[in-house]
Amino acid sequence: MDVIEVQKKNEVFLHIKADPSIEQELTEHFCFFVPGYKFMPAYRNRMWDGKIRLFDLRKKTLYCGLYNLLKEFCDIRNYKLVINESQKYDTPDQLLKHDIESFLSELTLSVKEDDITPRDYQLDALSHSLHKQKALLLSPTASGKSLIIYLAVRYFLEHYNESILILVPTTSLVEQMYSDFGDYSWKDSWNVDEHCHKIYSGREKFSINQRVIISTWQSVYKLPASWFQNFGMVVGDEAHNFKAKSLTSIMEKCTEAKYRMGTTGTLDGTQTHKLVLEGLFGPVYKVTTTKKLIDNKDLAQLDIDILVLKYKDEYCKEVSQQKYQEEIDFIVKYQPRNRFIANLALDQKGNTLILFNYVEKHGKPLHSLLQEKTPDNRKLFYVSGETDVDTREQIRAITEKENDAIIVASIGTFSTGINIKRLHNIIFASPSKSQIRVLQSIGRGLRKSDRDTKIYDIADDLHWKSNKNYTLQHAAERVKIYSKERFNYKLWDINI
Description:
By secondary structure, this protein is an alpha/beta fold. Helix content is 39%, strand content 22%. It folds into three domains: 3-88, Translation Initiation Factor Eif1; 97-288, Rossmann fold (3-Layer(aba) Sandwich), CATH 3.40.50; 297-495, P-loop containing nucleotide triphosphate hydrolases (Rossmann fold), CATH 3.40.50.300. A hairpin with a 4-residue loop joins strand 1 and strand 2. Helix 7 packs across helix 16.
């Protein structure tokens, strides 16, 4: 029987020894095409075959998080897997759920004045992560991922001596995570200032006393490997972004971090994406679903109106000859469409979020149009990547006290950058087919508030004869997402 020897190199990589022919098999097995590779310059110039190879044939290494898939590989081919130093990996902590619950019972959890109790699925996710040591938690936006992270941090600090690194994509989320930790411990003796240090542009990257580092990815990825050696736990929030090379490099530098937790609301459906993330963090663990949260009344009820804008034949014929970006430019600059969106927002009751994709040619004109139309007694806000952190936080704080505000915000900033707990209406003003962005954006409005949430999805029907335009095809992809997630939705045809 052919043999594959496995030895743990560190908390990131397994070292694999096998016959050269088997090593070649591993290379091909853990190998996937990058989505859209055919359009990338390196592929077009024949400098790259479009594949990601997760088994490094030169170094003989594979991500630790893919160990279970390696075992499946051996089982299918009837290869014998010989494990060295097995006590150092693939041996989860023997933590029982009631032991964790006993520890948590000593905590006083709150959101400011209000006491809170973790939901069962949050406790299950926490127990799973601590027991398995490595996990990619798949849980939708508004399911309380920050509380799971907080509880894991508290448990780790109590039972281990190493430090914790929490990575988030934006400065706003550094501040928000820090603020959430402060809220959860408001009635507790645990002081967030004493334990947590924030890192982002312009802030000190070294902490003397705090063992919990909350940082943007961009602020630390260029730091030397030695900086990452003291971390025994690493948490990647919005983990779906970790396929980027700069982010994988961070995770690979955390060679001593036995505990690895990724949190994300959704994966993009590609095999490459899923396996890279599982390799870095561990196997996927599905925490809960948006539908379950709504059914259990943990989140607001969601209704989606898909507003299909029907354009005149002369415009449809013109757009049919255009490329994708030309079609987008026509749509976002078409004034009757922008006036429709502005009037739609003004007609809503409650806090209304308008999401756009292009700052100069869409976001700013929409905001200017609303400035002309919005009455003085109604607050109007604008948020994009250009908006500084303090202003974003001020907008978030003000909005959560408002009942009838309008926020015009870029999708990129808002889908992962700001959490507002009292949103009543969301308008998708820009065409998008991204599953991740769609679900994250919807999640902005699903947090439990004083009323249900309404989504207005603007679709653009510019089809000519039998040919569907690009953005109409994108709308069809979003409908598939809504069906898959079992959301309530209706389609409405509107002549424009």
